[in-house]
């Protein structure tokens, strides 16, 4: 429950508890807190048991932790039946992005950095995002159709 509390944080909490409640009332407060936590755990366990009984025998192996989206996705990715590991291992994002950049810039994909060559010499196939794009030449504009607008 308190796995993410470090030793310094624990000492700080103890000092704060002594300052707020005082050394005389602190044992009584600790007992009340532990009793409340115990009651909450008992209530949640009984609620889990009631839900399992209502769901029936086909859900006897149901774990409530599976409802956490991270746990669900992790279990699905580890499932060998889906073949997701092969898909994930067969996908090279850098190569795909280099091919897209080459297609956008009108370069031959054989000269991309992923295939061993350099796309534009000194930059090594990287796009310089600090440079402003060059304005298109006057003859590169599409024809204007007054009737279409």
Automatic annotation (TrEMBL):
**Cellular localization per UniProt:** Cell membrane; Membrane
User: What does the UniProt keyword field contain?
Assistant: Cell membrane, Membrane, Protein transport, Translocation, Transmembrane, Transmembrane helix, Transport
Ranked from the top, the taxonomy reads:
Bacteria, Bacillati, Actinomycetota, Actinomycetes, Kitasatosporales
Q: Which Pfam families match?
A: TatA_B_E
**A GO BP annotation:** protein transport by the Tat complex
Keyword RNA-binding (UniProt): no
Asked whether the keyword Membrane is assigned, the reply is yes
Quaternary structure annotation from Swiss-Prot or TrEMBL: The Tat system comprises two distinct complexes: a TatABC complex, containing multiple copies of TatA, TatB and TatC subunits, and a separate TatA complex, containing only TatA subunits. Substrates initially bind to the TatABC complex, which probably triggers association of the separate TatA complex to form the active translocon.
- In the UniProt record, which is one GO cellular component term? TAT protein transport complex
- Annotated gene: tatB
The protein, known as: Sec-independent protein translocase protein TatB
Annotated region described as Disordered, given as residue ranges: 102-149
Q: Where is the composition biased (Basic and acidic residues)?
A: 128-149
Q: InterPro entries under this entry?
A: TatA/B/E, TatB
Membrane topology, from the record: Single-pass membrane protein
- Primary role: Part of the twin-arginine translocation (Tat) system that transports large folded proteins containing a characteristic twin-arginine motif in their signal peptide across membranes. Together with TatC, TatB is part of a receptor directly interacting with Tat signal peptides. TatB may form an oligomeric binding site that transiently accommodates folded Tat precursor proteins before their translocation.
Tell me the GO molecular function terms: protein transmembrane transporter activity
The similarity annotation says: Belongs to the TatB family.
> From what organism does this protein derive?
Streptomyces cyaneogriseus subsp. noncyanogenus
């Amino acid at each position: 429950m308190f796995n993410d509390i470090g030793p310094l944080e624990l000492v700080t909490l103890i000092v704060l508890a002594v300052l707020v409640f005082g050394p005389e009332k602190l044992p009584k407060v600790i007992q009340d807190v532990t009793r409340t936590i115990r009651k909450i755990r008992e209530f949640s366990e009984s609620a889990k048991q009631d839900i399992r009984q209502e769901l029936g025998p086909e859900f006897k192996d149901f774990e409530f932790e599976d409802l956490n989206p991270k746990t669900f996705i992790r279990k699905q990715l580890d499932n060998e039946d889906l073949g997701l590991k092969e898909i994930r291992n067969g996908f090279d994002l850098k190569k795909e992005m280099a091919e897209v950049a080459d297609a956008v810039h009108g370069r031959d994909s054989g000269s991309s950095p992923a295939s061993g060559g350099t796309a534009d010499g000194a930059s090594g196939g990287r796009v310089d995002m600090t440079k402003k794009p060059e304005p298109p030449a006057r003859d590169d504009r599409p024809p204007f159709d007054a009737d279409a607008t």
